[in-house]
């Protein structure tokens, strides 16, 4: 059994986790070592919400809809398609026709970069996130 200290991916609090791993599978999750922001506690998501890691339906590659069917694609292909669609929309309707919706699972630093991309890169203040839903 191997124990790995990491950071919970579910929200921006960033609680420290200790993953017990056996045969490349997570078998239990407990609070990480001190000092940590969570001080030995975890909410229910951080403690019990990791079944998805080994779920058979987990997406492991981007999907692009082609002729009405979602097909696996590379990250380069998916990001290239998004960039070209964004450019097309912005040139046709202006940058404010676009908006970005970030995730509460992102860190503060990731959310900062996300809003920077939309404000400084794309040129719109249409930026929001799901943390208060
Ligand atoms: S989801 Fe829960 S355990 Fe995970 S970082 Fe947020 S508060 Fe901590």
Compact summary:
The chain is of the alpha+beta class.
Fold and architecture overview:
It contains three helices and seven strands. The relative contact order is 0.12. The protein folds into three domains: 2-54, N-terminal domain of TfIIb (Single Sheet), CATH 2.20.25; 59-93, no CATH class; 95-133, no CATH class. α3 links the parallel β6 (100-102) and β7 (127-129). It has helices at residues 44-48, 75-93, 108-122; strands at residues 2-7, 16-22, 25-31, 63-66, 69-72, 100-102, 127-129. The strands form three sheets. Strands 1-2-3 form a three-stranded antiparallel sheet. It has a two-stranded antiparallel ribbon with strand order 4-5. Strands 6-7 form a two-stranded parallel sheet. The protein is flat. The chain is of the alpha+beta class and 133 residues long. Bound molecules: iron/sulfur cluster. The site of iron/sulfur cluster has 11 residues, from α1.
């Amino acid at each position: 059994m191997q124990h790995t200290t990491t950071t919970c991916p579910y929200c921006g609090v960033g609680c420290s986790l200790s993953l017990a791993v056996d045969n490349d599978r997570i078998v239990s999750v407990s609070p990480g070592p001190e000092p940590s922001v969570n001080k030995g506690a975890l909410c229910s998501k951080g403690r019990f919400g990791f079944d998805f890691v080994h779920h058979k339906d987990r997406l492991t590659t981007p999907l692009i809809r082609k002729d009405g069917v979602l097909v696996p694609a590379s990250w380069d292909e998916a990001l290239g398609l998004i960039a070209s669609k964004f450019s097309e929309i912005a040139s046709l309707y202006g940058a404010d026709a676009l908006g970005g919706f970030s995730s509460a699972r992102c860190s503060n630093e990731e959310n900062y970069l996300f809003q920077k991309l939309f404000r400084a890169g794309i040129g719109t203040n249409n930026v929001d996130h799901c943390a208060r839903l």
